[in-house]
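A.,

Following up on our hallway conversation. Structure tokens first:
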């Protein structure tokens, strides 16, 4: 409950600062919906803003709409917890559990919350992979434009070390990577943006992983990186026990052109 009100206050401050910075204090009432006028640290209840009246560009309007959407979501009481990583636009997503005598309830996906955080909520396919042996590696995979894909990765049995690499030349985290441990016990998910190479290593026998994917599998636009490319020097936790021939034969980064097309 305390977290809910802290988030409410933080978001109220952020929206208030945006509006005050433009010299706007009055938010007009719509014909059918009411709004609460606020200044400074005032709390927001029912909000119906007209973003285009408050800013000079569609981008600023979209940012305000996301903040308003975030606030409304938090006020409803069930949220997902988005944790920014060191890679731009990549998030770890934790559950906010609502426990009772039966167990707990939590939201594991919400298109509205994804959009409010600037993430793409599209789910074109859901895939499941199963791995017999610990040490198995799958990766590093991605698709290029116009079939670039987002992924939401969750481990439902066993444990994995999940790795992503930013392959976007325009990104401040271009060619950087992170690794995250996902297990059924921590119930974490990893949001993988478009043009991120993704792969994982199974940390136990009989590991199962579920992917929510934002684009259809398109072989002609599929690309990959070697799991052991010395440029990235990924610190995989275990010795490799199983890997496909396809993954063994992805090119090294030095063999690739900027933008992700492979010259094999």
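Then the amino acids I'd put at each of the 264 positions:
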């Amino acid at each position: 409950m305390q977290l809910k009100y802290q988030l409410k206050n933080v978001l109220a401050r952020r929206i208030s600062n945006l509006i005050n910075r433009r010299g706007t204090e009055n938010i007009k009432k719509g014909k059918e919906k009411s709004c609460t006028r606020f200044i400074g640290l005032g709390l927001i209840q029912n909000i119906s803003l007209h973003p285009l009246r408050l800013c000079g560009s569609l981008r600023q309007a979209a940012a305000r709409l996301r903040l308003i959407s975030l606030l409304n979501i938090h006020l409803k009481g069930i949220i997902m917890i988005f944790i920014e990583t060191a890679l731009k636009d990549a998030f770890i997503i934790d559950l906010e559990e609502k426990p009772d005598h039966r167990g707990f309830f939590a939201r594991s996906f919400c298109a509205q919350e994804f959009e409010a955080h600037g993430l793409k909520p599209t789910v074109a396919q859901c895939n499941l992979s199963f791995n017999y042996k610990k040490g198995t590696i799958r990766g590093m995979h991605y698709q290029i434009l116009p079939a670039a894909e987002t992924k939401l990765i969750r481990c439902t049995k066993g444990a994995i070390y999940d790795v992503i690499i930013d392959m976007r030349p325009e990104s401040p985290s271009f060619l950087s990577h992170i690794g995250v441990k996902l297990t059924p016990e921590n119930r974490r998910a990893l949001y993988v943006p478009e043009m991120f190479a993704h792969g994982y290593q199974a940390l136990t026998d009989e590991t199962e992983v579920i992917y929510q994917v934002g684009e259809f599998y398109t072989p002609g636009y599929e690309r990959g990186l070697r799991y052991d490319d010395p440029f990235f020097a990924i610190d995989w936790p275990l010795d490799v026990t199983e890997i496909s021939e396809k993954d063994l034969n992805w090119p090294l980064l030095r063999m690739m052109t900027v933008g992700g097309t492979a010259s094999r």
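Residues 15-56, 260-264 have pLDDT under 50 and may be disordered. Curious whether your intuition agrees with the design.

B.
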